[in-house]
Amino acid sequence: MKRGLLVFGGGGQVGRTLSEFSSDTRIITVLSRAEVDICDASMVAGAIRKFDPAAVINAAGYTAVDKAEIEQDQAFRVNRDGARVVAKALAETNIPLVHLSTDYVFDGRHARPYVEADQVAPLNVYGESKLEGELAIRQTLSRHIIMRTAWVYSPFGKNFVRTMLQLNSKHGAIQVVDDQIGSPTFAKDLAAAIMAVATRAKGNAFDQWGTYHFTGDTGISWYDFAKVIFEEAASFGVRPPTLRATSSSEFAAAAMRPRYSVLDTKKFACVFDVLARPLRESVVECLEAISIQGTGQLPPSI
To answer: How far is Cα of residue 299 from the mean position of the Cα atoms in its chain?
Structure first.
């Protein structure tokens, strides 16, 4: 009997969150990069033989958007070649795959949420490498679900919520870009959505394979997202900074970002009957998990 679900990328925000879903009745094996490098075909095949999963979740990825402009080979090695290695191993064993991708496969020229069938045109190396990973999976494995998501945040790892809190503990004013619009996605909500997908995908009757979008419920700028974070953090005793809006051109990041990358999640909701919670509700839960103290400062562990 198959043991359950196998997760690659256990050291990241989503992988760590998925590990919290494991129970006696729903076994999830979460493996970090140190345990299985998805670019190593023998390691991937060995893990699949050992755990004999009903489905595999690939949460592994190179996600340093700006750094990818310099480390292009590494970004493609993980996001394209690693995805192909996993898909090939699963094609040989007839095991379905749930794979995470990104809103950055789009160029941001639309003024309405992107649907799954919209033309892709990434602006940066990260987005291009993730798109190449999508293509590798489609060419290799028929039983796959590609889940595009966006702006993931959680109580751990490197993400916008934690960065804002850290900057606030050191500076009285923070500059945040206000001309990029996307949908912040709480890792716990994303993990729950992934579990819904994987549970359906491992059943023999499921046949709605393909690409889906799942994100948080709100399209918002980074600047307005920062405002929400500090408005909610105030109830934890955090003194808000002075927020100053700036443009993407003034911020001068190494990688270009789409100006608008809100994803339409109606298809996902229709097939899997899962919706993200309201933004503020998820932000509050994230802040609670970070355990902000009543001094307006972050605990040393952050």
So the answer is: 25
Both tokens assigned to 25:
């009745």
Buried b (16+ CB within 10 A) or exposed e, 228-257: bbbebbeebebebbebebbeeeeeeeebbb
Dist CA 179 CA 222 (whole Å): 8
Q: For the chain, what's the residue count?
A: 302
Catalytic residues: 126
- Give the residue extent of every domain in the chain: 5-158+183-217+261-276
β partners of residue 149: 102
Q: Name the nearest CA neighbour of 83 among 35, 140, 152.
A: 140
Q: How many CA atoms lie within 13 A of 250 on its CB side?
A: 10
Q: What is the DSSP pairing of strand 28-31 with strand 55-58? A: unpaired
pTM: 0.92
Would you say 166 and 230 are in contact if contact means Cβ atoms under 8 Å apart?
no
CB 166 within 8 A of CB 298: yes
**Cβ–Cβ contacts within 10 Å for residue 23, how many?**
9
Each residue of 98-151: pLDDT tens digit?
999 999 999 999 989 999 999 999 999 999 999 999 999 999 999 999 999 999
| CB 91 within 8 Å of CB 150 | no
DSSP string, 19-57: GGG--SSS-EEEE-TTT--TT-HHHHHHHHHHH--SEEE
Among candidate residues 190, 171, 176, 167, the one with its CA nearest the CA of residue 263:
190
**pLDDT over 90 percentage in the chain:** 82
* Contact (CB, 8 A) for 215 and 265: yes
As a whole number of angstroms, the distance between CA 136 and CA 251 comes to 34
CATH homologous superfamily of 5-158+183-217+261-276 equals NAD(P)-binding Rossmann-like Domain (3.40.50.720)
Phi, psi of 200 (to 5 degrees): -75, -40
